[in-house]
Each structure stands twice: as C-alpha cells, then as structure tokens.
Amino acid sequence: MVDSRSGDEITLLDSSIRTTGGALISTALYVLSGLVYVFVTSAAATGTYFFITLSVALVLRPIRGISQTVQKLGSERGEAVSSYLGVALIFAVGYLLISGGLVLAVTDELLRRTVLTPGTLPSVGLYALALVVSMLVASLLGAIGYPSVETWLNGLQSAITLTVLLIFAPVLSSASDLLLVTAGVRLLLRVPVAVLLGVVPAVPSRHALRRAWNFGKWSVPDQILDRFSYNMPVYVLGVVATPAAVGIYETADRFADFGATISWRLSSPLLTKVSGDVSVGDDSLQYLDSAITAGTGATFVVFGYLLAAHDVVAGLVFADAQAAFSATVLIVGGVNLLRGFWTLTSHAIEGLGRPSVSFRTKLYGLLFSTPVPAVFGAEFGAMAGAVGYGIMNLVIFGYVSYYARDVLGRIPVDTRLAAHLFVGLFSSFVSATGVVAALRTVGLPSVAIAITAAAACLVGFAGVMLAISRPTRRATYRAVELCFDLVRSTPK
To answer: How confident is the model at residue 115, as a pLDDT?
Structure first.
C-alpha cells in the first residue's frame, strides 16, 4: 500500500526523473496508439473515435478541475486528503447525473448533428465512467506525493490496450470497438489502484469546502478551457471538415506532441512541489527556472527528429496525404517548444494558488486562434487546424510570460540551459538527417529508416547535452543512482 505523505517532502529531481521514465514509455505508446488505431480500423473510424473521446473529455472537464483541486490542496502540509477526496466524489457523482440527464434529453439532436450513432452510445457511457475514475486516481496519487506513478500507469494501460487491439484486430472495425477496449482497460487498472491506495473519502469539513470553492471556482473553468484549447482543432475540424481530416490532424498531433506531453507530465510534480513549499513558507523557489527550462528538453529532441524525418514518417502513416501530414506535424512540433514552457510555467503559478492566470491565458489564446480552422478547415483540413494550434500557443506563451513577471517577478528561463537545448536541437537534426540520407542510399525500408533516425537523433542530442550541460550530467547521474537503488531493492 502507498502511504500518504505531504507533498512538501518530495525531492523534485527524483520525482521528475521517475515521472520522465514513465512518461517516455506512456507517451511513446500514446504516439503509437494513433497509428495502431488506423491500422486496426481505418482513418475514418479513428477520426470518429478521436472526436468522441475528446468531446467526452471536454464535457467531463469540470471533474478534472475538482480533481486538480484535490492535488493542489491535498499536497499542502496539514491538509486532509480524504476530506478533499470527499468533495471531489460528491461533485463527480452530481455532475455525472446532471450531464448524463442532459445528454439523454438531446440524444436525438446529437445523433442527427454529430458522428454519434445509436450503437456507440453505450460504449460512450462506459468510456466516460472510466475517464472519471482515471482523473480521480491521478489527482489522488499527486496529492499524497507520488505523481510519477500515474505516468507508469498510463504506460501500462497503453501497452495492454494496444496488445488487445492487435490481437483482436480481425474482429475490430468501428469507433465503438475502440471505445470499449480503451474503457475496459482503464477500469481494470485504475479501480484496483484506487483500492490499494487506502485513502477513504471523508465527509468534507467546512474548511475543506471553503478552500475547495476558492480554488475550484477558477480551476474548473480553467480545465474546461485547457481541454478545449489543446484539442480545439479536432473539435472544429470535426464540425467543418471530414473524419479523415480529424484523423490526419490528431495522428500528427500525437506524433509531434511527444515532447510537450512529457513537459505536461512533469508539470504534475512541479505543481505539487511548489504547492508544498509555499504552504510551509518557502516561496523562494530557486529551482524554478532550471526545472521549467529542463522540462522542455524533450520538445527539442522531437522537433529535431521531425525536421529530419517528417517525410519518412508521412510516407509510413498517410501515403495518400503526405503533404498534409508533414505540414501539420512540423507546425505542431515547432510550436510545442513554446507549449512545453508555458505548460510548466502556468502549473507553477497554479501551485502558488493562482489558477485564474491559467484560465485567462487560454481564453485569450482561443479567441485569437479558433477562427482559423473554423474558416479554412473545410478547404485545408488538418493544415488549417495546425495553423490555428500554432497561433493559440503563441498567444498563450506571450500572456503566460507577461503574467509570470507579475506573479513570479521574472520569466522563469535558465538562459544558459536554453542555449544548450538549442545546440542539442541542431545536433539531433544533423545526426538524424545524416542517417536518413545514408540509409536511403542503401535502400532500407522506411520503418527501419524512421527507427534508426530516431535513435541517432536521441544520441546526437544526449551526447551534446552531456558534454556541455552540467545540470544534464547531474540529472543523468542521479537517474543512474535511482536505477541501481531499484535493482538493489528488488527481492531476489
């Protein structure tokens, strides 16, 4: 059983290393999942699946806002996690009943105007339940001081899901099939974990209700905007374009978003650390600049790879839409350099108890970006979605930087480490480009070229960073120590 402990006891470097390890696995499988979905079913079925799951996630986002409240307030010293878990459960049950009733009331309209069909409704309901359980378990893990565990759970979930899909590929063909498999695996993993954690929800005290309201009144709308802003192109393209355009955009986004997803995963231990430190009066946060800058590192590796091998990947995934996929994946990959930064920075600000800042920045980003795919999506499809995504992230980056000066007193960037990352980006690009050119001349299959180029990209980036960056060497040494500690503690 995992024992509850205060979030201020977390060592940020160790927690981030453990989170990164799980995030590398879970994110790689997350990227691969889009390709597997298309392989098992079709681009149209995958696009329908993406549209449904992302729409469900948006509808349920208020519950994510409450679960974020559990993580933020529960991680503070002296606060009772069980009381905030009670608040979250009461809210979740009430919200599910109300939203479920509203969906039933407008079912005919939804069937007429969206990709939903009568046969998909039961699987959509099961998926929604599984998603709520995932949200609550993830926030509980972060609150009691183990945010890295969630990334390993996600990796295991993705591995099992993809295995099941590949085994039963001959009998799977629709979006409903994908929904049932993903929902079933989520529930089979998360429910036992919730039981093993041993945190029993309690009737919330007035203190817990008051604090949950003060934080949640901004966290809930912020999480709605967070989900809508991240998946805005999918929602808009799902209305004005075709399911195939949605499938191309979302598959490209998953591939290009590898680095930004790791940054997002690292934002959980950062939020917990900042929240715990501030709750005991330590508001110096000396580690913030280097932690945020280092947390964007994976976005540089991914962009270097995409610059060198985007056409190879496009030929593998969407042979009949290579130009659209390449353009989409390059735009998303490039702008994710900024997304990684603002994601970590906004979560640090949220750890200081200012979720209103995150809400405002995403609202501004949506106002500037949503018209682009809405107007041009029907003609340009996935590429219009990518341009809208790029504009949104540029706007949010600017506003987060502006608010960081007010809240933190500075823009949290370690300039030396940032310069090292750009050198690493150049090295990774050169390494991957050389490998792609060499392997093409000998006529290797595209799959082998893509995989080998990825390895060369990683080696080129890591080699340079280890040579020129002291923080990289320190983190690497500590990661090796943790691995040896794990091996020594494993029962023989």
So the answer is: 67
